[in-house]
Structures are given as structure tokens and as C-alpha cells.
From TrEMBL:
PANTHER family: MITOCHONDRIAL RIBONUCLEASE P CATALYTIC SUBUNIT, PTHR13547. One of its GO terms (molecular function) is metal ion binding. One of its GO terms (cellular component) is mitochondrion. This is ribonuclease P. InterPro entries: PROP1-like_PPR_dom, PRORP_C, TPR-like_helical_dom_sf. It is an enzyme of class 3 (hydrolase). Keywords: Hydrolase, Magnesium, Manganese, Metal-binding, Mitochondrion, Nuclease, Repeat, Transit peptide, tRNA processing, Zinc. The keyword Nuclease applies. Its EC number is 3.1.26.5.
Length: 564
């Protein structure tokens, strides 16, 4: 199998590199070759073989007196303490500290000492992973020692393999980073393929070294192969990966690929950060973008594409021909571009998607909440709902305040009631501790709580519950507005793992600010804040600049000069 050479200054394939492509029975011979080859490297010195964790095990302390459950617990504690105080345990602790402090020099000194014949220490997977992580970090971030750190990392990996310690995803990701640091994207990619072959599911971070190395080397074909492998493995790229793919294809003038990737960014990212926006803007200003497209097209096919896609794009390729007029713009409250006059559309959500999402929420919630509690809430909601709006009362009551304010929540309740169709009180979700304790006992707050109860608008979540599940489920199942300033980016919302959620949030979340005159509700816009492609071929790309409620969002507006 071919081993790709490094780019400028070409590092020759080493025995450690060849380990990635050779069968296990050759590893010891290659390790010997690699040890001689690295004899004079700055970080390396000649060493005897280390002990393998496959042949040398830490002594297992005997449990002198089990004495029932107490004795068993004491025995486990003793074993843990002895393991922690053993040479292997001490080395693990010291390497963890090196990893925390990015101290490669000390870590390598500890590694060399562990290999000494006088006091050898068996090395485990964790030891090797710490060492490889530090080597890959130094190789990627320190130009002065990059080559030496990479070679030393390959040496450590070669010994690990020769000693029969099986790598995991973290191990091979570090090796991929070492390969990328030596400007060898083909080797980095081969590591990921090895993972898949060995039954180790690659993660997004596993693909990053190869993908970014190909993109930095301006190898669009190689980057495309990595992207295809990601897709086949079910690994979804995020904005940094998509931006890198956009950049390399734009630089190569591959118009069809840029078009495809813009639409993939539309689906997966929706709004882009400033770095990605610069890549997009540079593409539209390029000669390749001017030359891409057609002078004539079938309007019926474009319209069919818009209908099929749900609005906001057609997918028929670049429309028009000639230079683009590109600049930054803002939208008015109706979604009309202040630069070109194009009115953005509101992209519909399929009702079946909403139903499926509500079912997924239920499944997740009953796994993490007391099942009877959440099912009881669903029953309550069927009796008292639907509601036009749901209020995350904990978020609203603590807005710009150190203590919870019932009057602040009530002012928002009244404000949202005035703008909803039914004029019914919104559903107020609040933890039972807030309802029964603290300043809830004050007479004025008791009156507020009682008015909510009489209207059937208050639901107190039970002790130990996470009220996020309750207000989110209520808003989704009722297809109502959700009043909260919570950006919903934490672990709970990442569990949802679907492109539906950001689309739903955009259409349903009401954010708020307060002034001396009371709350101001920032209702969802009547258009979708997502990359949009119009029927005449123009593009509008929203940025994350403007996520702040008080600041207008910035958009890239790109139209053909000939169409203006």
C-alpha cells in the first residue's frame, strides 16, 4: 500500500508510519527499525523494550477478611488505594497532570523512566493515550518542535502496537493528528479507515485531522473522499468542516461543489459565523463564481424545486451568468432585504415532523425523569390545553435579577396574553420548590399564584425534575409560542440530535427584554433565518452577528449585476 510522503521538506515514511499499514506479526521488526532510525532525534534516546501490559500485571491485593458487605466494600477500597499508590497508578496521575498542564517534556521523561531496566513500569492504554495526546498537541501547535514531537509520538505508538496494547478511538485520533502535523493527510485518513475496519466507530474529531490537512494542502479531491467516508459512517460535519470544504472548493473554482456545500451548510448550520461568511463572500467575488451558471433556465423546474423543498431554495444550480454584486445587508421586520428589495420567505415545517419530535421528546424525558411524573404532566396537559404560549417561568423570573420575581413573570404573562389569538392565559411552568417556598409565601405573590391556578395555567414540576423537559414538550405538543431567553444549547438540548429543533425554535421562541415601562416581547420573525436561494438565483446568507436581541442581524446579499 502506498504511504503518502509529507509535503514540503518531505518526511520519509518511518517504521512507525508503516505500522499503520502492516500486519501485527511485523510490528516487532518494524519497532526495532524505528528505534534505530530515531536514535539521534532531539526527544529520543535508545531504550530497551518496555514491559507489556499483556504480560505484566499489577499485583492484586488479597482480601484478608471479607466479613460480609462491609468487608467487601473495605476490600474494594483497599484495592483502589493500592492501585492508586502502585507504580502504574503514580505514573497515571503524573501523566494526567502533564496532560492538564501541556507538559510534554516531563511526560517524555516519565515515559523514558518507565522503560528503564532498573525500575520498569507496565504501560496501559491510558498511559499511551496521555503521551500521544501530548505529542499530537505539540506537533500541531509548536512549529519549533513539531517534527520532533511527531516522530516521538510515532515511536510511542509503534511500541504500544508491538507490545500488544490495543488502541481505541482516542489513540488513533491522536495518531491521525500526528500525521496531519507532518502534512501527510493520506496517512491521517488511513488511520480513520483503520478505525472503521477494526470496528471502532470514528467520531467527528477523528476525521478532522485528515479533512483539514487535505484542505490546507489544496487537495479538494482528497477532502471530498474524507467527506464521503464521514457520510458513510454517519458522522455529520459541523461548521468548521463545512467552511474548510467550501474554501478549498472555492479556491479550486469547483462551482458545482460550492453550490452543493452551500446547500449542505443551509441544512446543517443555517446561519454562519464571521469566518465562514468571509469564505462565502470571497467565493461570490471570484472569477469562478462569475463564470458559473446558465443564461437561460426553465422557470417551471425552479418553481417545482421550491415547492418540493418547502420554500427558500430550489436546488437547480447557479442561475444567471456574469459578475455578482455582493455586500452586507439587514432585513426589515417583514424580511425584506434593505439592499436588493428581495423578500425572504418563511419555510414551513411539516406537521408530521412536529409530531415525531414530540414523540422523541417524550421518549427522552421518561428516560431521565420519573416516568409517572412526566406521564402525569402529559395527562394534565391534555385536560387543560392547548395553550397559545408557554412560559419558562424560572428563566423569566430570574431575568436580570438575583432573586426570583413573581411580579416580573406576571407582567410577561399579561403581555403575551394580549398578543395571542385566544387571549387565554399562557401555561406557566415553574418548579414546585418555587411555588411552595421562598418569596412565594408573600401575600402579593400568593395572589398571583392563586390567579394562575384558578385559570388552570400553572403547572408545578415535581421535586428532582428538570423543568426544561416540561416547558419544551408543552410548547412543541401545543405548537405554541415559547417565552424564554434560554438559548437551549446545553447538554439536554444536544440530546435531541436533530435538525428539526433549530427550525422549530426559530418559529416559536419569544425572547424578551425589560425596561422601565415593562417587558418587550421579541416575537419570531415572519421569515426564516436561514441561507435562502431565490427563484432568480440571488442568495442571502445570515450570520450569527445579530444573535443579540438588541442588534440587527447581518446578512450577505449576493445578486447578479445583470439582474439589478
Amino acid at each position: 500500500m502506498r504511504v503518502a510522503a509529507a509535503a514540503a521538506g518531505g518526511l520519509r515514511p518511518t517504521a512507525a508510519t508503516l505500522l499503520l499499514f502492516s500486519p501485527p506479526h511485523q510490528h516487532r521488526r518494524l519497532l526495532s527499525l524505528h528505534r534505530r532510525a530515531t536514535q539521534h532525534l532531539p526527544f529520543a534516546r535508545r531504550r530497551r523494550d518496555s514491559y507489556s501490559t499483556a504480560t505484566v500485571a499489577a499485583p492484586i491485593p488479597k482480601q484478608e477478611d471479607a466479613g460480609g458487605a462491609g468487608g467487601e466494600a473495605e476490600g474494594k477500597a483497599t484495592r483502589r488505594r493500592r492501585a492508586r499508590d502502585s507504580p502504574e497508578g503514580n505514573l497515571r496521575h503524573q501523566l494526567d497532570m502533564c496532560s492538564r498542564n501541556a507538559d510534554l517534556t516531563t511526560a517524555l521523561r516519565l515515559y523514558d523512566a518507565a522503560l528503564s531496566a532498573d525500575s520498569p513500569v507496565p504501560l496501559s492504554l491510558h498511559h499511551y493515550n496521555c503521551l500521544l495526546y501530548l505529542c499530537s498537541n505539540a506537533a500541531a501547535s509548536d512549529p519549533d518542535s513539531s517534527a520532533a514531537a511527531a516522530r516521538r509520538g510515532f515511536d510511542i505508538f509503534a511500541r504500544m502496537e508491538a507490545n500488544g496494547v490495543q488502541p481505541n478511538e482516542a489513540t488513533l485520533t491522536s495518531v491521525a493528528r500526528l500525521a496531519a502535523a507532518t502534512r501527510d493527510p493520506a496517512m491521517a485518513f488511513s488511520v480513520v479507515r483503520r478505525m472503521a475496519t477494526a470496528g471502532i466507530p470514528p467520531r467527528l474529531r477523528s476525521y478532522g485531522p485528515a479533512l483539514f490537512a487535505y484542505c490546507e494542502a489544496k487537495d479538494a479531491d482528497g477532502a471530498q473522499q474524507v467527506e464521503a467516508h464521514m457520510d458513510a459512517s454517519g458522522v455529520v460535519p459541523e461548521e468548521p468542516e463545512l467552511a474548510a470544504l467550501l474554501r478549498v472548493n472555492a479556491d479550486k473554482g469547483r462551482a458545482d461543489e460550492v453550490y452543493r456545500l452551500l446547500h449542505r451548510t443551509r441544512v446543517l448550520v443555517r446561519q454562519v459565523c464571521d469566518t465562514t461568511a468571509q469564505v462565502v463572500e470571497a467565493w461570490f467575488r471570484s472569477d469562478a463564481a462569475s463564470e458559473a451558471g446558465v443564461d437561460k433556465w426553465d422557470p417551471r423546474k425552479v418553481k417545482e424545486g421550491v415547492i418540493k423543498g418547502g420554500g427558500g431554495w430550489h436546488g437547480q444550480g447557479w442561475l444567471g451568468k456574469g459578475p455578482w454584486s455582493v455586500d452586507w445587508s439587514e432585513m426589515d421586520k417583514n424580511g425584506t432585504c434593505q439592499r436588493c428589495g428581495e423578500r425572504l420567505v418563511c419555510i414551513d415545517i411539516d406537521p408530521s415532523e412536529t409530531e415525531n419530535f414530540a414523540n422523541s421528546l417524550t421518549e427522552l424525558a421518561i428516560k431521565r425523569e420519573v416516568k409517572d411524573d412526566f406521564l402525569g404532566f402529559q395527562s394534565w396537559l391534555r385536560r387543560h390545553g392547548p395553550f397559545d404560549a408557554v412560559i419558562d417561568a424560572a428563566n423569566v423570573g430570574l431575568y436580570n435579577s438575583k432573586s426570583f420575581s413573581f411580579s416580573q413573570v406576571n407582567s410577561v404573562v399579561n403581555a403575551i396574553q394580549r398578543v395571542t389569538k385566544s387571549k387565554k392565559l399562557p401555561l406557566i411552568i415553574l418548579h414546585r420548590n418555587r411555588v411552595n417556598g421562598g418569596n412565594a409565601k408573600a401575600p402579593y405573590n400568593q395572589k398571583i399564584l392563586e390567579s394562575w391556578r384558578k385559570a388552570g395555567a400553572l403547572y408545578a414540576t415535581p421535586p428532582g425534575s428538570n423543568d426544561d423537559w416540561y416547558w419544551l414538550y408543552a410548547a412543541v405538543s401545543c405548537q405554541s409560542l415559547l417565552v424564554t431567553n434560554d438559548e437551549m444549547r446545553d447538554h439536554l438540548f444536544q440530546l435531541l440530535g436533530t435538525s428539526f429543533f433549530p427550525r422549530w425554535k426559530e418559529k416559536h421562541q419569544v425572547r424578551l427584554t425589560f425596561s422601565g415601562s415593562g417587558p418587550t416581547l421579541h416575537l419570531p420573525p415572519p421569515y426564516s433565518i436561514v441561507i435562502q436561494e431565490s427563484v432568480d438565483g440571488s442568495w442571502h446568507v445570515p450570520t450569527t452577528t445579530g444573535d443579540d436581541i438588541e442588534k440587527p442581524r447581518q446578512w450577505i446579499c449576493s445578486t447578479r449585476k445583470s439582474s439589478k
